[in-house]
Each structure stands twice: as C-alpha cells, then as structure tokens.
Amino acid sequence: MKSKLICNLPSIKEKKKQRNFGIDFARILSMLFIINHHIIYHGGPLFKSNILSGKNNFLLFLNVIFCSGVNTFGMISGYVGFNTHKYSNLIYLLFQTAFYNYGIALYFKKTKPNIVKDLNHFLYPLFISDYWYFNEYFILYFFLPLLNAGIKNLSKREMGTFNLTIFFLFSCFNQISHYLTRLRKDFFHIFNGSTYMWLIILYLFGSYFGRFNNISYYSKFFNYLICFTIINLLAFLRCRIIIYKEEHKSNVDLMRVEYSSPSSVLISLCLIILNCKLDIQNKYLQKIIQLFSTLTFGVYLIHNHVLVRNNIIRNNYAWLLEYFSFKLLIIVIFQSIKIFILCSFIDYLRFLLFKLFKIRQICNFISYLFHKINNIIIHLFEFIY
Q1: What's the structural domain count of the chain?
Q2: Statement: the pTM of the whole predicted model exceeds 0.85
Q3: How far is it, in rounded angstroms, from Cα 305 to Cα 100?
C-alpha cells in the first residue's frame, strides 16, 4: 500500500524536457575547474611559490580562471532548474551530504583516530559541516518558487535589464569597494560570493540563458575564439590587479578567491555560452556525459570534505612547482581528472547503495508528507483569518 502511495504521488509525474548534453558537459567541466582550483589553492603551489615570481603569477592566472567553476556550477542550477522545483530533490541531496559528511569522518576515525576528535560533530550535514556551498544552496532552495514565478513572467528585456542591474551592483560596484578606502569593504555583504544571496544571483543569471536559449551560432569557430579571448583577457587583467596589490603590500588573501568578481562572472557566462549549444549526437558519448554529470555533486562532497582537504589535498601538491608553465598546467589537469574519476567511482557505488535502499522513494514520500502537512496548516490559517 505504501509503495503504491509513493508511486502515485502527483508531484513526481512531470514531462521530461529534452536533455541538454552541452550543459551536462559544462557541469563536468565546472567541477574539474573547482578541483583544479583546490589543487592550486589548497594543494600548496600558489602559496609555496615565491610571491611575484613568474611561476606564482602563472598559478595566480590559472586560479582566476578555475575559480569561475563555482559560478558556472551555480548558473547551471538556474539554467536547468527554473522550470521544476521538487523538495524531494533537496531531501535527496541532504541524505547524500549526510552520508558523506559522516561516512568519510567514520573512515578517518577507523584509519587515523587522532585526526577525528569528535565523531558526533559530523552527524549534522547542515550549518555545522564545512560544505558551505550546500549550506547556502539549502537556503536558496526555499526561495526558488518565488524566483521561478518571476523568471517565467518577466520578458526577455525586463529580465536582461534586471540581471545587468544586479551584475553592476553586486559584482562591479562591490569589486570597486575593495579598492576605495572611503567605501566599506564588501558593501552588500556578499562575502566574496560564499553566501546564499550570491547563489540567488547566479541562479538568475543562469535562468536567463535557460529560458531564452536562442544564442545563434552563425560561426562556431568565431564564437569559440571570442569567448576564449575574453576568458584569457579577463583572467590576465584580474591577475594584474592582484599582482599590483601584492606589490604595494595590500591584503589580497580574499581577492585570490573572489567568486563575486566581474571577471569570474563573465568567465562563467562564456563557459555557459560555449557549452549550451554543443551538438552531441553520439549516443555512447551522451550516456557517458549524463552519467558523470549526475555524479558531480558527489565529487564535490568527497574531495572537499574538511578531513580530505586538510589531510590529503592541503600542501600535498607543492611538488608541482618542479614543473613550468604549460607542463605545469597539463599535470594539474591530469591530477584533477584522477581525483574526478576516483570520486565519481565512489559516488557511483553510493548511488547503487541508495538505489538498493530506495532512498529516492523515501525522499519522495517525505516530500509528499510535508506537502500534506503544509496544506493542512495553510487551510487552518485561511480558516482563522
């Protein structure tokens, strides 16, 4: 009886729209960018190299580009998510986050007991854990019904004007406030893009391209060339700004990881534009891309777990400084692909485990119960008032 109830939930049956494999590929690419950023930033090369040296400047340049992976990941949520909103998906992500938050801690407790002092600390996947992106996304998710209603009802011009306005205010003006001493730093409390407010902005940016997906590719080569040039130019200019601040011994620690900077936003937009019109026809390639794209969040949860980051990644990639320029870049990419494939394999096993225990159906049932309880509360409120 219970299984029939779960299968007949009205919220589960929805029309499937055609899958955009280019955006799936962008999701994989953005996660690889994030891993590259973590290798360069947390792994040690950026801070172990001599400041203002050629190698340090090159790593800084790469880090500026790879930082944009976070923004790209956030924009993709808006690109694919403005048409659907199911709380069962959020509950599933909560189960997945809790699984890795505690499971990885338990593994370290068994293998390296001295590292984990309080295992109970990892019982809570929200707010206490170190997964800042999931914590902020969890808050964002409750704003989505309101955001999606606005996205669907605004015209292209209205939505474009709105997005440009918030870009100039929350990205450009906020960036300027870092350089003017008379203005307070972080004027709008964006915290360099590590808040739910910034994820809302990214969601709106991505939903614009998802709804008005009519970018014409009259010359694919020409568009690739323009986007590639813009990405490198933006990264170079931001790199020069940070180098200038370092030369004058200003505090630039936060500037090295500033998701809300205009350069990071525009680089992410270029990546969305480049991938949203990819025409992938090969069925086997489609299946591979779809599989790995569904595992990207698990890759994030595994490799960015506080214990993994502090004991496996942090300062353990300083040996990359033995290499120079192009070879250094190739090795960083190769290392990130290794991490991505390993974490994807682990998350696939987790997926099979969740499938065995019917976690998706449980999430659907929990969502259904919350929906019923919410309706009862609303009816009571309407009756009283």
Answers
A1: 1
A2: yes
A3: 8
